[in-house]
Design a protein that fits this description.
The structure is a single chain. The chain is of the alpha+beta class. The chain contains nine helices and 20 strands. Strands 6-7-8-3-9-10 form a six-stranded mixed β-sheet, with helices on both faces. Strands 13-12-11-14-20 form a five-stranded antiparallel β-sheet. The radius of gyration is 25 Å and the shape is globular. The C terminus is likely disordered.
Length: about 375
């Protein structure tokens, strides 16, 4: 396996006639550890696939350096980098059997026949495709084809595995199953893997670390938990998490967030300067109580989404119902649509973002909000 170092990497493409080059990647720096599973995530057009293709050698690097185990490989051809890539489209040869698809790359490298057979057997057993070795791709389901595409990478035993949205062509149920299988594959191989997706659920469930990109720049890098609980900015906060983080625009004055008919004291935030801020809170940190509970904001349940064990409540908040929040609650405790409720927020779980979108850290809310949340904590128990 290998350690991958991406240092101040940039990528430009020619612009329209008479126009300057278009910048796809700005100044991207990343250190990917030996055996790490790193996920590149971001909206369409953010540059994540371009970055992956630069690592593979399928795109030339305009600026910066790419190193594998400390060796600069900018000028190396893709075949000389010892990297395997799994594509969204599977990229299987339709006229070859599964066995021959798995063997193709090894034969091109002059691997001895006995080693080819041994590696095919190991990969087919690991990925549960042994019964299909003599079939053609057209005779396989989407999930089986994706296993074959992964098997073709596994038999090569490369230093780095690259995945370019490999599950996007599968239905939701199969994507969930394949996520588990990818996690198991990584554990078995101990391989360095770089995985591109626009699906934040895939990112959260697969990654050791996530790198969030936007418009060719890195917004934040860290563990799924770190990015979810302490997003660096409003973009990351909204992009990661289902449902999206609740956000409310307002003013901060003397440690109190307020906007028209809403007022939320934030102990610890009194040290922050007054001004325009956005308040953010996750659905699971919107606490549902009674309208009469101390410290609760008046709200009405507008729509409920029953997801089985849990239910999402879509709430109109404030005396005039001006604001919208989504709360996550156990289905057995979920009030029905039209119900009047009270809303509070989990102490220490409220986020503030300045007008530029940067997160404003402030001390965890403790004693002052604990009293206001006692009723809700009792409901949780």
């Amino acid at each position: 396996m290998a350690r991958v170092s991406i240092r101040h990497l940039g990528k430009d493409v020619p612009g329209p006639k008479g126009k300057p080059p278009q910048r796809i990647l700005g100044d991207v720096s990343l250190e990917i550890g030996d055996g790490e599973f790193l996920v590149l995530v971001g909206p369409s057009g953010c540059g994540k696939t371009t970055l992956l293709r630069c690592v593979a050698g399928l795109e030339t690097i305009t600026r910066g350096d790419l190193l594998l185990d400390g060796e600069r490989v900018n000028a190396l051809e893709p075949r000389d980098r010892d990297i395997a890539m799994v594509f969204q489209s599977y990229a299987l040869y339709p006229h070859l059997t599964v066995r021959d698809n798995l063997a193709f790359g090894l034969k091109m490298r002059g691997t001895p026949k006995d080693q080819i057979e041994s590696r095919i057997h190991q990969a087919a057993t690991m990925l549960e495709i042994a019964p299909y070795l003599d079939r053609y791709p057209r005779q396989l389901s989407g999930g089986q084809r994706q296993r074959v595409a992964m098997g073709r990478a596994v038999v090569r035993r490369p230093r780095v595995f690259l995945f370019d949205e490999p599950l996007s062509n599968l239905d939701a149920g199969l994507r969930g199953q394949m996520r588990v299988e990818l996690k198991q594959l990584h554990a078995r191989l101990g391989a360095t893997m770089i995985y591109v997706t626009h699906d934040q659920v895939e990112a959260m469930t697969l990654a050791d670390r996530i790198a969030v990109l936007r418009a060719g720049a890195l917004e934040q890098v860290g563990s799924p938990r770190a990015l979810y609980e302490t997003p660096a900015n409003l973009f990351v906060a909204r992009f990661l998490g289902t449902p999206e983080m609740n956000t409310l625009a307002g003013q901060l004055r003397g440690g109190v967030w307020e906007s028209e008919d809403l007022r939320v004291p934030l102990p610890g935030a009194e040290r922050l300067p007054s001004g325009q801020v956005t308040l953010g809170v996750r659905a699971e940190d919107v606490l549902i109580g009674s309208p009469e509970d101390a410290g609760h904001l008046p709200a009405q349940v507008e729509v409920t989404e029953n997801l089985g064990w849990e239910t999402l409540l879509h709430l109109k908040v404030g005396a005039r119902g001006t604001y919208r929040l989504v709360a996550r609650i156990e289905t057995v405790r979920a009030p029905g649509a039209g119900s009047a409720v009270g809303v509070a927020m989990t102490p220490g779980k409220v986020h503030l973002f300045d007008p530029s979108g940067a997160r404003l850290p402030f001390p965890a809310q403790t004693s002052q909000m604990a009293a206001a949340s006692e009723t809700t904590e009792g409901m949780r128990a």
